[in-house]
């Protein structure tokens, strides 16, 4: 009975977001305990703390794009739109057009990229340390934790899907009925 109810929840997700949940259904059917742990993990992934939604989705979408998963990125874009993040901001996040973003969102885009690439800077003071300090100044330690959760948790979804054989390459994302190529700012 519990599997039936959980599967019904997954089908609702599919219907609402047009998102392929077969990898979750496979987990549910093969190992209920593993699926319940996965559902528990979702509480970490959805934590937001005091970070504004546009900045939070900058971290989430940036993490997904780093793992090259189109369907997961599309779901995050759809969730951001549903949460009220303006399409222009989402498009700039996907394209990594930091010049088109509000300062705080650009800060999170740059911080997310540095965290994901772990590029040590030549100077004694690393750029990610400077950005981390700015984040703490804006939203406190709770904001830094929320962004750390977003970056680390959202990387799990594409990795899990790829490991289970459901990975898809990310070629374009649709933002408010407009196709957007990740990491490429529009031609001016």
Automatic annotation (TrEMBL):
<protein>
    <recommendedName>
        <fullName>Carboxymuconolactone decarboxylase-like domain-containing protein</fullName>
    </recommendedName>
</protein>
<dbReference type="InterPro" id="IPR029032">
    <property type="entry name" value="AhpD-like"/>
</dbReference>
């Amino acid at each position: 009975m519990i599997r039936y109810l959980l599967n019904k929840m997954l089908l609702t997700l599919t219907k609402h977001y047009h998102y392929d949940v077969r990898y979750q259904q496979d987990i549910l059917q093969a190992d209920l305990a593993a699926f319940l742990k996965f559902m528990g993990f979702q509480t970490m992934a959805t934590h937001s703390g005091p970070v504004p939604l546009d900045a939070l989705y900058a971290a989430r979408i940036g993490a997904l794009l780093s793992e090259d998963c189109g369907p997961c990125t599309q779901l995050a874009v759809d969730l951001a739109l549903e949460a009220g993040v303006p399409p222009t901001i989402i498009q700039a996040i996907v394209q990594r057009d930091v010049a088109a973003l509000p300062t705080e969102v650009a800060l999170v885009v740059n911080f997310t990229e540095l965290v994901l690439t772990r590029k040590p800077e030549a100077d004694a003071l690393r750029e990610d340390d400077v950005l981390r300090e700015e984040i703490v100044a804006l939203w406190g330690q709770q904001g830094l934790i929320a962004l750390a959760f977003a970056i680390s948790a959202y990387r799990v979804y594409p990795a899990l899907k790829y490991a289970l054989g459901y990975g898809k390459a990310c070629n374009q994302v649709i933002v408010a009925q407009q196709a957007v190529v990740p990491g490429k700012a529009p031609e001016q």
